[in-house]
Amino acid sequence: VKGTSMYPYLREGDHVWVHAIDWEKIRIGDLVVFEQNQIIFTHRVIKKNATNLLTKGDNLLYPDPPVAHGRLLGKVLSIERDGKQYTIEGRVMILNRVLGLLHSAIGQVGGFLGNVVEKPILQRWKKNLHWLGKTLFLPVRALERLLCHVIQLSN
Prior knowledge:
Elements: E1 15-19, E2 31-36, E3 39-48, E4 52-56, E5 67-68, E6 72-81, E7 84-87, H1 91-116, H2 126-150
Antiparallel strand pairs: 1-6, 2-3, 2-6, 3-4, 4-5, 6-7
Helix pairs in contact: 1-2
């Protein structure tokens, strides 16, 4: 893992174990690996339809552009951090579902704010609206850290 877009769930230097998955088996909250613009991403699924996934990094306000079926490389099955492996099953899978729903709501707010600030009349409020979105994001971040700690994904 490179970057901080999935922090605290995934951290710089973590290794993810990925397996190919049938499109029909992907669920909200799953961590998936995909390619866009020749860059590999590992983000959380926040919405799915027959042809595209909507994903978002847990540490980001705005969702990613839609991920087409052909760009999906697989689903994360386990995470290795500091020599310890965490399999995504049981409590961790339930955590993923909860985080998927929470981040879906954040992504909707972020998407809305992203569309609103593009209106010429609101350009001067762009920083304030972004700050508002990040502020609304704080309780979810606190809950996410607590849940990650409870299942021992966090030090």
